[in-house]
Every structure is written in structure tokens, then in C-alpha cells.
């Protein structure tokens, strides 16, 4: 199968490598036409890099892997070359301005796309690129899931039809990882960190239930699996950012957990859901 990957950062590059190892021809799009997220790795021959979206017009399956901050802009341009392909959203996050999830943005910008899904789970990009065993939740309808298993057969994929729950897990774990890193520095002990960690996650689950998610999703790879990876490891960008905030250090680059925390609180307020722990942690971190 011919796979189009939009986004040539570390995560896009990692998924392009996985798709190539799965036996597919891959076209990897980035603004400069090169993969620069993991540029110390040797590019497989079945990956072609391009700065032109039109080169992905005839791909049979699309992966969107751009940062949440640039998701709407990228998808709006993608519509010009959209050819009815199933689309798998691999971006975890919420739009800062609107508080919308990525699938909601996709619906607005490419309303003719009916076959879309979400990939989310415990995934560090470099390990995926290097072929380290990795599992993810693949959420969507049967068309999206069957294509995803061909595109990414190199990964262990756990099927789900809970698109909104899978997205909330991906957003929520970013927020909780940020909180966990902050509490590692400022907390009075491991007991307190576990207490805050659990109560914060519980508020996110409450929000998800109100939005129609399946509680079982939070026990899967996109839920407890990703939460474990992101909220306990200094390798996690959000966890380490939480530590830096606690130490008063400057944050360099985009930290999805900051947008996630603010977005989740705003979305919960719009639905009348109480999030006292998330709000308290936002205030303590000065966000």
C-alpha cells in the first residue's frame, strides 16, 4: 500500500519508518521536504520525502502527524489534494484557541472525510523508528482500522471504535504527565504525588464519560499504557516540562500538556463538570 504521512518531525518520521518496515511505500511530507525529526537515522529506500502535498494525492491511506498547534492549518491545505483516503489522526492534543479535539477540526476542515480514526498509545518516537516493540490503540470504523493494520503492521494495534475516548486519553495523559513532573519536585512525598495524579486522572475520566466515551478505553494502551509511559518517565517531554516549571526554569519549545490542561478545564466548564484538582494545579503552575 502507498502511505502518505503529513508531518516530518520526530513522531512523523518514526511512523514513516514503521510504515516502511510494514512493507509499504511511504511519502513523507514536511515543510522543507526532508525528515528532520530524527535526522541521525538512515532513511529506508521505500520512504520518499516531499515538500509538496500534491505528491500525496494518490496515496491510499493518510496519517496526520503534525503538532496540534499546526493541525488546523495543515488539514486546511490538505483538503486541496484530498482524494477520499481514510485518514488516521496521530496527533495528540487540543487546539489552544478553541479547545477542540483533532477529529472535530478535521470534520470542520474536510467535512467530506467520513472514514477517519485516531492512533494513540505509549509511543516514544525514536523507539518506534528503531523498531522497538510498541503498542497503540487504533480507533475508528472498520475501513480505517483495516487500513491501519496494513499501514502499521509493525506495531501491535488494539482495535477500538471509541474515537473521542481515545483522543481524551491522549490529551489527558499530557496534562497529567505535566502535573506529575511538577509534583515530583514540589510534592512532599510519593504518597501526595500519587494522590494528585489519581484525582486528576479521575476528573479527566469524568469529562470523557460526559462526552460519551467508553470507560474501558481508559484501561487500554491509549489509557493506562500511555499514562504510565508519559507520567512516570523523565524522557517524557511533558513530565520534564512539569519539573522545569517547578524549578522556575525556562520552557523551550511546545509543551502539549500546557495546552491540554487549559483545554480540558475549559471543555469541562462548558459541560458543567467540576475539575478542582486540574484547576488547582493550573494555578500552582502559573498557567
Mean pLDDT: 95
Radius of gyration: 18 Å
Count of separate structural domains: 2
- Which stretches are poorly predicted, pLDDT < 50 over at least 5 residues? none
Number of strands: 8
Q: Describe the global form.
A: globular
Q: Please report the first level of CATH classification, the CATH class of the largest domain.
A: Alpha Beta
CATH topology of the largest domain: Rossmann fold
Count of DSSP H/I helices: 11
| Largest sheet data | 8 strands, mixed
Summarize the structure in words.
The protein is of the alpha/beta class and 287 residues long. The chain has two domains: 2-160, Rossmann fold; 163-284, N-(1-d-carboxylethyl)-l-norvaline Dehydrogenase, domain 2, CATH 1.10.1040. It contains eleven helices and eight strands. The chain has helices at 10-21, 71-78, 102-109, 125-129, 142-151, 163-186, 190-210, 221-232, 237-247, 256-270, 276-284, and strands at 2-6, 25-29, 47-50, 61-64, 87-89, 116-120, 135-140, 156-160. An eight-stranded mixed beta sheet has the order 3-2-1-4-5-6-7-8, with helices on both faces. Helix 6 (163-186) packs antiparallel against helix 7 and helix 6 (163-186) packs parallel to helix 8 (221-232). The longest helix is centred in the middle third of the chain and has 24 residues, at 163-186. The protein is globular. It starts with a strand and ends with a helix. The mean pLDDT is 95.
Amino acid at each position: 500500500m502507498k502511505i502518505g504521512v503529513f508531518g516530518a518531525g520526530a513522531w512523523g518520521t518514526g511512523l514513516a519508518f514503521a510504515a516502511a518496515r510494514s512493507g509499504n511505500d511511504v511519502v513523507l511530507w514536511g515543510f522543507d521536504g526532508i525528515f528532520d525529526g530524527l535526522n541521525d537515522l538512515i532513511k529506508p529506500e521505500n520512504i520518499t520525502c516531499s515538500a509538496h502535498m500534491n505528491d500525496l494525492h494518490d496515496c491510499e491511506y493518510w496519517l496526520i502527524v503534525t503538532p496540534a498547534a499546526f493541525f488546523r492549518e495543515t488539514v486546511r491545505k490538505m483538503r486541496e489534494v484530498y482524494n477520499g483516503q481514510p485518514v488516521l489522526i496521530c496527533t495528540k492534543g487540543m487546539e489552544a484557541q478553541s479547545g477542540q479535539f483533532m477529529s472535530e477540526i478535521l470534520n470542520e476542515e474536510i467535512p467530506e472525510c467520513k472514514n477517519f480514526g485516531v492512533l494513540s498509545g505509549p509511543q516514544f518516537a525514536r523507539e518506534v523508528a528503531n523498531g522497538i516493540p510498541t503498542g497503540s490503540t487504533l480507533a475508528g470504523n472498520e475501513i480505517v482500522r483495516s487500513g491501519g493494520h496494513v499501514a502499521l503492521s509493525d506495531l501491535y494495534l488494539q482495535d477500538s471504535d471509541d474515537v473521542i475516548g481515545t483522543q481524551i486519553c491522549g490529551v489527558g495523559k499530557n496534562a497529567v504527565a505535566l502535573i506529575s513532573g511538577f509534583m515530583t519536585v514540589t510534592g512532599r512525598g510519593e504518597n501526595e504525588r500519587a494522590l494528585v495524579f489519581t484525582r486528576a486522572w479521575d476528573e479527566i475520566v469524568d469529562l470523557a464519560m460526559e462526552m460519551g466515551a467508553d470507560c474501558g478505553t481508559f484501561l487500554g494502551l491509549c489509557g493506562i499504557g500511555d499514562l504510565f509511559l508519559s507520567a512516570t518517565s523523565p524522557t517524557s517531554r511533558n513530565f520534564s516540562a512539569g519539573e522545569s516549571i517547578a524549578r522556575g526554569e525556562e520552557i523551550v519549545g511546545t509543551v502539549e500538556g500546557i495546552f491540554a490542561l487549559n483545554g480540558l478545564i475549559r471543555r469541562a466548564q462548558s459541560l458543567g463538570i467540576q475539575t478542582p484538582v486540574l484547576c488547582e494545579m493550573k494555578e500552582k503552575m502559573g498557567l
